Amino acid sequence: MSRVGRQPIPIPAGVTVTIDGGHVAVKGPKGELSCDIEPRLIVRQEDGHLTVDRPNNDAYLRQQHGLARTLIANMVTGVTEGFVKKLTLVGVGYRANLEGNTLTLSLGFSHPVVIEPRPGISFAIEQADRQRQQVIAVSGINKQQVGQQAADIRRIRPPDSYKGKGVRYLDEEVKTKPGKRGATGK
Hints:
There is one protein chain. The chain is built from 3 helices and 13 strands; from the N terminus they run H-E-E-E-E-E-E-H-E-E-E-E-E-E-H-E. A hairpin with a 2-residue loop joins strand 2 and strand 3. It is α+β, with helices and mostly antiparallel strands. It folds into 2 domains: 78 residues, Ribosomal protein L6 (Outer Surface Protein A, domain 3, Alpha-Beta Complex); 87 residues, Ribosomal protein L6 (Outer Surface Protein A, domain 3, Alpha-Beta Complex), CATH 3.90.930. The longest helix is centred in the middle third of the chain and has 22 residues.
């Protein structure tokens, strides 16, 4: 049996879960999310926990078992705490401005890059630590949408492999190459 799928999902206070066959809706203090899961999977709500079970050991149902449990757990976490991805701008003159909820980036191109957020996503700009780099916080209740929006921003100017300049995740390690050294040995 799936190790992930077997784990119960705790339901915090203030969160309501509605199960209708293969459709699961979760409503909490930060909003409402819903998703469709494999209809043959059994989702039970009992004494403050959700459990996901499967009727047999079919290979496809084994795959969907852990996935459905993770999707439901992410929805519960999203409507209670939300998700945040942080990106940092590394490079001389790289700047981020927030006008309303529209993000404007200056990343060394001849023009500024304007990014409109996806529905349910919000941006925030923070000042980073000792190197005075700006940090962009992408937040929302849907984990997939937050991750996709952060990946779209990073894709505009990915980290350079020689100097490390570009947009990177806050905890991302960028391995740099040594570059040219000239003639050696003579």
